[in-house]
Amino acid sequence: MYASSVEQEKFDYYEPAARDFFDLLKPRVMSLVIFTGLVGLLLAPGHIHPVEAFTAILCIAVAAGASGCLNMWYDADIDAVMDRTRNRPIPAGRVAPETALQFGVWLSVASVLLMGLAVNVAAAVLLAITIGFYIFVYTMWLKRRTPQNIVIGGAAGAFPPMIGWVAVTGNVSIESLVLFGIIFMWTPPHFWALSLFACKDYEKVGVPMLPVVSGEAETRKQILIYSLLMVPVTIAPWVMGFAGMIYGVTAVALGGIFLALAARLFRAGDIRTAKQLFFYSILYLFVLFAVLGIEALLRMGGLL
Fold it and tell me: How far is CA 279 from CA 7, 191, 203, 275, in A?
């Protein structure tokens, strides 16, 4: 860890408030995880009792929050140095590291156990793999060692719709893998766009994000390449028949805008375009999964 060579700053920790524990869960990230997990559940063939469905989404939410909490615990040393993270609960002195660690571990165990007991074992195993991948593979191994951290580590954020699907069906299918693939391919251009205007923060703490290691020009090229690979994956649900025409048209139209922004960033290379692509990418993924979910609900109601 960064603090191994430089003594970590000591903080006087206050009695944490409920808001501090909530902030440890990375609520903005957790909301997207909950949403994509719900869409995976809605798309899955078969029937699930409403109580089981609610429990599955609750477990996905708690597991996502636990992962975020443990990530903050491990990264507290670099979070204290980076401008955009220094006000997080641990570096800001609002929550002690030991408290955050215990909170994250208990939430992780509780979410997996509840998923296994109330929903099914397959979904619980996949949930456990997701937590472990995010903490041990991405946070502890990849993040500080390789510029491919986001590419490989992005798998952790891609699991939720697959978990939602498995909660209903009890098994992984090609359709659930496509949902996984959409988020997996979306993650690199999304986070590399962020890293272009947060590059100095990452460089300051020695995190080898792509622009730090390979430069901005290479990062812009990789964003364009991954965007070109991503758009066909987003169209796959329509081609494969588990999404309808509304989704297909939406995916093509929004994908075209994504590619246009990525191409403009590749040519211009300005921070303003990087920010535009970053914020558009959030809207892009939300709308894609929203349309998938709406179509699923309309089919359930016999309207499609």
Answer: 36, 10, 22, 6
